[in-house]
Design brief:
Layout lengths: L18 H11 L1 H22 L13 H12 L23 H7 L18 H8 L11
Length: 144
Amino acid sequence: MSTETTTTSTSTAASRPTLLVRLADWSYRRRRRVLVLWVALLVATVFAAGAFGGDYNFTFSTPGSDSQKAQDLLERGFRARAGDDVDVVFQTRQGTTVDDPAVRAAIVDKDNAPCWQPAALADVSDAEVERHFAPLGSDELSLP
């Protein structure tokens, strides 16, 4: 009766960890220092953006246009509403987009001149303007 023993040799030298593994290990062992470093980097970035960044303002004016006259009217009579933005949304039927010729013709005439009613600022009465800025009555505003 013979007994055979098989032994395999294993490499005792471990392979060198990658750079990312070493960085993760270093960051974990010094996690408080890394956290302070990230917070300092965030504060420095915010400070640099404020110190070296440009101004965030945009002014748009078209002297003599109807929209400029309307803006001037708002600034004279309704200072609280002057400078408000208005978003105009067009909804199309399913399967069409705003770029379709039929839809575009309904929004803007073929000569690309808007077809709004009233056509000019002079056609808007003071009563019509005041109707849009009058306080709501108790029967007009109801909360669910």
